[in-house]
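Table S7 (text form). Paired inputs.
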Amino acid sequence: MIKAKNLVKEYKDFKLDVSFEIPAGYITGFIGKNGAGKSTTIKLLLGLIKPTGGSIEVFGIDSCKLNDDTKQNLGVTLADSSFANSMNVKQINNILKLMYKEYDEEFFMSKCKAFGLPLDKKIEDFSTGMKAKVRVLIALSHKAKLLVMDEPTSGLDVEARKEILDMLRDYMTEDEERAIIITSHISTDLEGLCDDVYLIDGGKIILHEETDVIQSSYGTLKVSDSQYEKIDKNYLIKAKKENFGYVCLTNQKQYYLENYPDVVIENASIDDLILNLAGGNRV
């Protein structure tokens, strides 16, 4: 579905250099701190900017050469882009009918009503959360094969986020040949939705892992200075010095549970990966 090979984008003070692949049937999350390269990757994927080197293909086609027919199979949500703020939902609906061959007007309008989105009110007068809902519904409305979603749940409350995530799950169950690439700073959204995640830091991918492996095998150890000196460090990925001692990240949680019963060991979250791998000290 998506294949990036030695993909490079250079700016004056930043360089992205990544390779990754997203097959059909997968929901893949891109995580990392602000400025890590997530949005740059999305823009390269959509052909909005040209790479400095390497390649990225969507549906087997160079992302900068996607034609109008191919773009029919893309559903896109960008945090900083949407229809003109002077438009309303009814006007957007009319445009979508002209834009997409497979546009589902009934789905779009019924979901707008279910979300309590005013049909005649200008988008510029919507709240941040209401704007986010409109962007997601636009992306989902035309039976795209690939959803590209940059912070789709940003600005939404817990209930609205759940509704959006449920719609994304339904979207995938309708067609096993579909795929989603999603960025989000809300780690719990990704943990409950994604099949795998890529962690980007400083323009490079520093981790690619299946989500269920993170949940089953990764853990954080909280140890005193004396415990840290004695503990087997062969299965530690990172160690970060704290006032009480060290916080250590491992992908062999069970080993430490079995061999170090006195050590505090917790399940690792996606936030733990970001905090420990995009910072801290290597063991």
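Next pair, protein 2 of 2.
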Amino acid sequence: MSKKGRKASPKLGGVATAVIGVLVVTLFVLHRVGVVDLDLLGEDTTSPSSGEASTELSGDRAQEQLSELRVEEEDDQPGYDRALFPHWNDNVEDNCTTRQVVLLRDGEDVEVDDDCQPDSGSWYSPYEGETFTDPQDIDIDHMVALKESWRSGAHAWTTEERQDFANDLETSQLWAVSASTNRAKGDADPADWLPPLESVHCDYVVSWIEVKHTWDLTVDPEEEEALREVLFDC
């Protein structure tokens, strides 16, 4: 008789059942004393490889948020001035300004003086993928530039609302980046400028959409098309 067709011995079956029973009881006892967490049994606890899962989820959310944005031509009202967006706020955390908080948050091994001004550390600029050790080489980029927000609806805000926008630490509005790329970007939207490092484009447009969605700012037709083109490949 082949192995495939052979029936298990009743004696062996009884032994196996007894062993399984003992294991079940043991696991239950260990669970009661806190040694084993039965809730974890059977779950796949493997961490996602790289950032692909989170990028996919962020991309899906960005697609949804983009579809909810109002698409309108820019309304560049006269009277724009950066002073209408007061920044940086003082004493945001301890005695640190908003700018200093971002430098501390985004830097590595940052040391500050008594006024919370960084005097050493390193900062990775995601726009071009380079690391800088001089804080003077770092700017805090408003993801959605202040002038761009003005053209997208902020001209109708109160000064207090514009101040909140310019110091927004709740969304991904503030990025520590190299001064050179920040100044190259200026007040351009993604239809006219994207970071030199192509691998950050997905994160960049996801952040852009999040900020515009949170603050109920509009997108112009060319801007919306550019955002959709980048998201398509994310």
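The first helix runs from residue 10 to 32.
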